[in-house]
UniProtKB/TrEMBL annotation:
Catalytic function, reaction form: AMP + ATP = 2 ADP
Protein name in the entry: Adenylate kinase
Organism: Clostridium scindens (strain JCM 10418 / VPI 12708)
Locations listed in the record: Cytoplasm
Binding residues for ATP: G10, A11, G12, K13, G14, T15, R127, T136, Y137, A199
Broad EC category: transferase
Domain notes: Consists of three domains, a large central CORE domain and two small peripheral domains, NMPbind and LID, which undergo movements during catalysis. The LID domain closes over the site of phosphoryl transfer upon ATP binding. Assembling and dissambling the active center during each catalytic cycle provides an effective means to prevent ATP hydrolysis. Some bacteria have evolved a zinc-coordinating structure that stabilizes the LID domain.
Length: 214
């Protein structure tokens, strides 16, 4: 089962991708998480990616495509995977299609988590990420048991720099210009499924499970 999560920043792609990965036993591949891990470890890729991410811009396609194509060829991906945050541009989608065709494979679903712009700023300003394990919470909608402390590993939570309102506006513009055209792309490919991302986290997940099957 090979799945792409589409949706605006803050729509809930990561939240749902983690639940899909756990239920179906497939890897969750988040390009944002990969970049943030590289930044934390001070790698060359991390240094390059950071200059774009800080401005709310996309990292150039050539820094992303090979990374993902190599990742999906690994052994743990043989029964499928859920891509979260990739592809984000038409050239990325085309490169992915080509790589899959070369392997004799194809994508099964592109799930669009649909949330209007009005809801996004509140989603992002309340998002908190764990500095230790990267788990994601929301002050209002997905709170931790103890305030400011990760339920999973006990480390502290932070507001991502790129979740501050001034960067969120840029990211939304970038989404509409560069990523939203993928909805059309995957509609034409016949694999687009849309879920209402404004529903509660569990209800969104139920809608996804109905699409994917139990
Ligand atoms: P969100 O969860 O809010 O959608 P991500 O964690 O997926 O954000 O991505 C954070 C940032 O990492 C993006 O704003 C972008 O700069 C960079 N990034 C992640 N994935 C990609 C990609 N596929 N192509 C280009 N840039 C990416
Ligand atoms: P994305 O990966 O698309 O950027 P996230 O999964 O990180 O989005 O979700 C963004 C924020 O919104 C997080 O703080 C998350 O806890 C919260 N969130 C996710 N899904 C929902 C939902 N259905 N209702 C309310 N809040 C949500
Ligand atoms: Zn943690």
């Amino acid at each position: 089962m090979k799945i792409i999560m589409l949706g605006a920043p803050g729509a809930g792609k990561g939240t749902q991708a983690k639940k899909i990965a756990a239920k179906y036993g497939i890897p969750h591949i988040s390009t944002g998480d990969i970049f943030r891990a590289n930044i934390k470890n001070g790698t060359e890729l991390g240094k390059k990616a950071k200059t774009y991410m800080d401005q709310g811009l996309l990292v150039p396609d050539e820094l992303v495509v090979d990374l993902v194509v190599d990742r999906v060829k690994q052994e743990d991906c043989k029964n499928g995977y859920v891509l979260d945050g990739f592809p984000r541009t038409i050239p990325q989608a085309e490169a992915l299609d080509k790589a899959l065709t070369d392997l004799g494979e194809k994508m099964d679903y592109a799930i669009d988590v649909d949330v209007p712009d009005e809801n996004i700023v509140r989603r992002m300003s309340g998002r908190r990420a764990c500095v230790g394990c990267g788990a994601t919470y929301h002050l209002e909608y997905a709170p931790t048991k103890a305030e400011g402390i990760c339920d999973v590993c006990g480390k502290e939570l932070i507001l991502r720099d790129d979740d501050k309102p001034e960067t969120v506006t840029n990211r939304l513009n970038v989404y509409h210009e560069q990523t939203q055209p993928l909805i059309d792309y995957y509609t034409k490919a016949g694999i687009l499924k849309t879920v209402d991302g404004t529903a509660d986290i569990e209800d969104v997940f139920q809608a996804i499970v109905e699409i994917l099957g139990a």
